[in-house]
Amino acid sequence: MKSFNLNPKKSLQGQMFLNFMIPFAIIGLALFIFVKSITGYIIDEHVLPEFDQILEMNGENLSAFTDENVVNQVIAGEGGESQLTTFLDEYAKGKEGLEYVYVLTRQNGKDYIVGMNGSSDAMVESPFTDDQARAFEEKKSVLTSIYTDKWGSHKSYFVPVDGSDAIIGVDMSTQFIDDLITTINLFLIGFVVMAILIGGVIAYLFGRNMNKHIQKLVHSMDKMASGDLTEEITTSRQDEIGTLSNKFEHMRGNLIRMIESVKTNADAIDATSVDLVTGFSEMTEASEQIATGTMEEARASESRSQHIERISAGTTSMSDEVKALTEQTGLIDQFTQSTSQRAKEGSDQIVRITDQITRIQKNSQISHERLMTLENKIVAINRDIDLIKDISDQTNLLSLNASIEAARAGEAGKGFAVVAEEVQNLARLTDSNVKTINQAIQEINQQTAEMMDANKEVNSDIEDGVNLVATSGELFETIFHGVQGLSDEVRKMVSSMDTVQSNTKDSIESIHEIAAISEEGVATLQEIASSSEQQNTTVRTLQTKNSELKTMADSLKEEVQRFKL
Fold first, then answer.
1. Residue 172: which of 53, 45, 39, 43 has the closest Cα?
2. Taking the domains of the chain in order of start, what are their residue ranges?
3. How far is residue 484's CA from residue 491's CA, in Å, rounded to a whole number?
4. How many CB atoms lie within 10 A of CB 238?
5. Long-range contacts: 228-232, Cβ < 8 Å, 24+?
6. Distances (CA, A) of 533 to 281, 459, 558
7. How buried is 52 (Cβ within 10 angstroms: 0-12 exposed, 13-18 middle, 19+ buried)?
8. Which residue intervals define the domain Methyl-accepting transducer in the entry (predicted)?
């Protein structure tokens, strides 16, 4: 019996098994999560609130019934221990789920259990928990959360005792909640496991039933692959597997007909290939003769084309030289035109310079005349200054005489003496100024004389410049006419070079056309030769392929013999 393969890549049965198992597992897991969440909701929203209500009610009742005087006596060490223990035992008796009831206090910084049901000990030191300390310090009721210790899970409620420095604690077991959760979890796990097992069994049985028919079909395909087409593929199924079996049976019939047809065609190919070999041999000989003649003509045409190319290259080189010469001539024409323009501009500039120098000469003459006038004015000023000097000398002499006469007059002439002295001072000052002016005028006379001499030299140089400019103007006029004549000759030469270049260009185009036609002829002959050679190669290839075809036909007949029809 064949083993069960769970690999989905190698077994269809394994794929079907996994396809059944995965949905069952997902549904079971989803149900597990759903029921667990519902259980948690019920416990949190219904069970625990009722439990807390019962716990708080027990705590409040215990606080109300507790005698604070007895508690205070026990704390003070004045007796009452047995009375408190009896009260706590009686209260805890008969109450389901109630584990411990006790009284707690803190004295001198230490925590104590004042009394507890089931224990005769009193004032036993025991540190407070956080919830106990909060209830004692804040004097308010405190409900703890569920906590777990070595005795199980519990929940506590602490409430202050009125009239006493103590609190009452009530502990109730929550083990039934843990037991309920455990029971539900076990039930869910069992349900999921059972669902997976049931799904696995169904998947295995269903897959084995389907795999049996597929294995039968695979067995038939193995025989067909080995060449045995005699076994008929039958099935009674009406589903997709039945359709697949019918299609394979149809394919078996088609294979039988195809193999019989191949066998018949292979015999026909074998007979035809002999005739093709003879025809290909004759075609090969004719193609070789055509290729030989065409190659000889192509070589001759290629030689002619090479000569034409050399002529074309020489003509092209000559055209390039003519073009370069034309460009140089054009540059010369441009240069002569530019030179002519510059000569004309120079001639015009000489005319303007001549006019300017003439105006300068006239202005220089006017300056000379004005200097002569200035010199005459300065001579007149010298005469006036000499007259002023004589008047100053006479005034000085008169003031001296007046001073002498005033001295002779004594006291009566003192005022006149003062005036005479002032006049004498004024005469001296006038004489001093006249000397200064006379000295300045002498310097002006000297500078004016030097300017007159320089003006004479400038007039002489200007006259020489006018003569030189006139001569230069005549030379520029001669150069302008000469350059203009050269420009006309260069234009004629440029026109002739353009005509030569145009004729050379036409010749080159004609030679290029001849060369192109020759090259096209060579290319055509080469293409014919290449086509002939290619045809010859094709014929040889066909001969080879025909031989291979005959070999394949023989091999095909051998292969067909393997099948049992």
1. 53
2. 12-209, 227-565
3. 11
4. 8
5. 228/563, 228/564, 229/255, 229/256, 229/259, 229/563, 229/564, 229/565, 230/564, 230/565
6. 15, 103, 37
7. middle
8. 279-536
Q: In the chain, what is the straight-line distance between the N-terminal and C-terminal CA atoms, in Å?
A: 32
Question: How many percent of the chain have pLDDT more than 90?
Answer: 7
Rounded CA gap, 28 and 384, in Å? 149
Tokens of 301: 């045409």
**φ, ψ dihedrals at 110, nearest 5°:** -115, 145
Three-state SS for 93? coil
Q: What sign for the dihedral angle of Cα 382, 384, 386, 389? A: negative
The first and second tokens of residue 93, run together, are 């008796």
- The helix or strand, by DSSP H or E, that contains position 312, with its residue range, turns out to be helix 240-409
Residue 77 three-state SS = coil
> What is the CATH architecture assignment of 227-565?
Orthogonal Bundle (1.10)
Under the banding of pLDDT at 50, 70 and 90, the label for residue 364 is: low
Contacts of 365 (CB under 8 A, 6+ apart): 459
Query: pTM here?
Result: 0.36
Residue 270: pLDDT band (50, 70, 90) is low
Q: With both helix axes pointing from N to C terminus, report the angle between 81-92 and 48-65 in degrees, rounded to the nearest 10.
A: 150
Cβ atoms of 142 and 131 closer than 8 Å: yes
To the question of domain 12-209 being in CATH 3.40.718.10, the answer is no
Do 560 and 265 touch, CB atoms closer than 8 A?
A: no
Give residue-wise pLDDT tens across range 377-386: 777 777 777 7
Alpha carbon of residue 43 to chain centroid: 59
Mean pLDDT of all residues in the chain?
74
Residue pair 75/165 in contact (Cβ under 8 Å)? The answer is yes
Whether the predicted pLDDT of 1 surpasses 50:
no
Q: Encode pLDDT of 344-359 as tens digits.
A: 776 677 677 777 767 7
Return all residues near 342 (Cβ < 8 A) that are at least 6 apart: none
CB 146 within 8 Å of CB 153: yes
User: How many C-beta neighbours within 10 Å does residue 80 have?
Assistant: 21
Distance CA 518, CA 516 (A): 5
Q: Which amino acid is at 305?
A: S
CA dihedral sign, ordered 245, 251, 254, 255? negative
CA torsion sign for 508, 514, 517, 519 is negative
Is residue 300 within 8 Å of residue 440, measured between CB atoms?
A: no
Identify any residues that bridge with 167 across adjacent strands, giving them in sequence order: 104, 160
Tell me the three state secondary structure of residue 164.
coil
Same CATH fold assignment for domains 12-209 and 227-565: no
